[in-house]
Design brief:
The protein is of the alpha+beta class. It has two domains: 2-75, Glutaredoxin, CATH 3.40.30; 85-191, Glutathione S-transferase Yfyf (Class Pi), Chain A, domain 2 (Up-down Bundle). The protein is built from seven helices and four strands, in the order βαβαββααααα. Strands 2-1-3-4 form a four-stranded mixed beta sheet, with helices on one face. α1 links the parallel β1 and β2. α1 (11-23) packs parallel to α3 and α6 (155-164) crosses α7. The longest helix is centred in the middle third of the chain and has 32 residues, at 85-116. The chain is globular. The two termini are 31 Å apart.
Length: 200
């Protein structure tokens, strides 16, 4: 059976969990609190030398890390990867963009506010500016489409909805982004998720 090491509070971990659940995979979830220092332990670093979650251990002992790489592996051959080469390339374009231009701002600010306990005034303004720019980019992209790549939900939507639906935890207001909000609702319905109610 697959073993998945993940922190249930992390969007990067949740996106992997959601895909595995949606595809009906059997797996063992090992809750891994990133705030405890366990991901820097010798045992964990043997699994993932980068010291990050999620990390997947296969039955044969192979390991795979990086959330979007894991999505790509399990998504292969499923409806979540578009068959059309152009649409598939656009999906990967969004996946790369998520880790470079979205997660480093939206997720990082959420972490600092919800987990570290920083106030709004303690957040670096550049992080807020770039987070807002990322959300505005998504609002613009969804002007004429229901999904980010192709005509159906893809790995791009699974990847990006993780931290986008949590953006309010970091102080990013979504009320002025109706297309993003409607897309979040569609993605949650596709994945069988209840509407996100905020950090608890």
């Amino acid at each position: 059976m697959l073993t998945v090491y993940g922190d249930i509070r992390s969007g990067n971990c949740l996106k992997v969990k959601w895909l595995l659940d949606r595809l009906g995979h059997d797996y063992r979830w090992v809750e891994t609190d990133v705030m405890s220092g366990v991901t820097r332990s010798t045992d964990f670093l043997r699994l993932n030398p980068c010291g990050q979650v999620p990390a997947v251990v296969f039955d044969d002992g192979r390991t795979l890390a990086q959330s979007n790489a894991i999505l790509g592996f399990f998504g292969e051959g499923t409806p979540f990867v578009p068959a059309d080469p152009w649409e598939r390339a656009k999906m990967y374009e969004w996946l790369f963009w998520e880790q470079y231009s979205h997660e480093p701002y939206v997720a990082v600010v959420r972490f600092q506010r919800a987990f570290v306990g920083k106030s709004a005034g303690e957040i670096e303004p550049r992080l807020m500016q770039r987070g807002h720019a990322a959300l505005d980019r998504m609002e613009q992209a969804l002007a004429d489409r229901d999904w980010l790549a192709g005509d159906a939900a893809s790995l791009a939507d699974i990847s990006l909805v993780a931290y986008t639906r949590m953006a309010g935890d970091g102080g990013f207001e979504l009320t002025g982004r109706p297309r993003v909000r409607a897309w979040i609702a569609r993605a949650e319905a596709c994945l069988g998720l209840p509407p996100y109610s905020g950090f608890a």
